[in-house]
Amino acid sequence: MNTENKQRNPVLLIHGIDDTEAVFHKMRAYLIQGGWSVYSLDLLPNNGDVGLDELAKQVADYVTATFGSEQRLDLVGFSMGGIVSRYYIQRLGGINRVQRFITISSPHHGTVVAYGSWRPGCVQMRPDSIFLKDLNSDAVIILGQLDFTSIWTPYDLMIVPANSSQISVGSEVIVPVALHPWMLTDSRSLAVVTAALAEEIKLPFLKKVSSQ
After folding, report:
1. By the 8 A CB rule, do 96 and 64 touch?
2. What confidence score (pLDDT) does residue 199 get?
3. Region 120-130 average pLDDT
4. Residue 88: left (phi > 0), alpha (psi -120 to 50), or beta?
5. Tens digit of pLDDT for each residue in 170-186?
6. Whole-prediction pTM value?
7. Most buried among 29, 65, 81, 91, by the most CB within 10 A?
8. Which domains does the chain have, with CATH numbers?
9. Are strands 73-78 and 11-14 parallel, antiparallel or unpaired?
10. What would you measure as the largest C-alpha separation in the chain, in angstroms?
11. What's the CA gap between 74 and 97, in Å, rounded?
């Protein structure tokens, strides 16, 4: 057991808009109990005042400052944090550092809720935004190089339509949670994240699974 834990990559958690790293309190404790070393950072500003590409640079800087140059890591991004993480992976060299990548209720194809603000980060999360079109143009090619899992709920009122969290690469797990923020605390979500990090969710054996 100890040997297995030593071989596990550190896990970096990336929060969503208007959140801080504190939103991962329960997930962090759950993963630590399972034997993972867990890290997180506060993205600033967290309200969409700057583009997601700027926030992704903070992730890149944190990785460089925190982990050795040869250290592989696993990345978990919630909501906006999943898109920030994608920019880090797809545009800032993160593909060379990240082995497993999990997004939780992330607007891979945008959310109409983002029309409620003209802040740069929100504009980027609108459906068919230039930013998302660019990321999605090579998502299959780049994200297909790592172990990628998208977790989402059909009842999401922040990601509208909810199936915007779907993306045609990797594994997909639907967890029927009632509210967007509960995706980080529901026991089913936590179990799926653990399974994905432990590589119990793999292609081609799993594409779409509903966690009951």
Report:
1. no
2. 82
3. 98
4. alpha
5. 999 999 999 999 999 99
6. 0.92
7. 81
8. 2-210 (3.40.50.1820)
9. parallel
10. 50
11. 8
CA 211/CA 186 separation, integer angstroms: 11
Q: Which two tokens stand for residue 191?
A: 């179990």
Q: Are 186 and 177 in contact (CB under 8 A)?
A: yes
Any idea what DSSP says for residue 195? H
Token pair recorded at residue 20:
């801080």
- Looking at residue 43, its amino acid is L
- Residue 63's CB is within 10 A of a number of other CB atoms, namely 23
Task: Give the CA dihedral 165, 168, 172, 174, nearest 10 degrees.
Answer: 40
Nearest CA to 105 among 75, 82, 139? 82
Partnered with residue 100 across adjacent β-strands are: 74, 147
Angstrom distance (rounded) from CA 57 to CA 66 = 14
**Percent share of the chain, pLDDT over 90:** 90
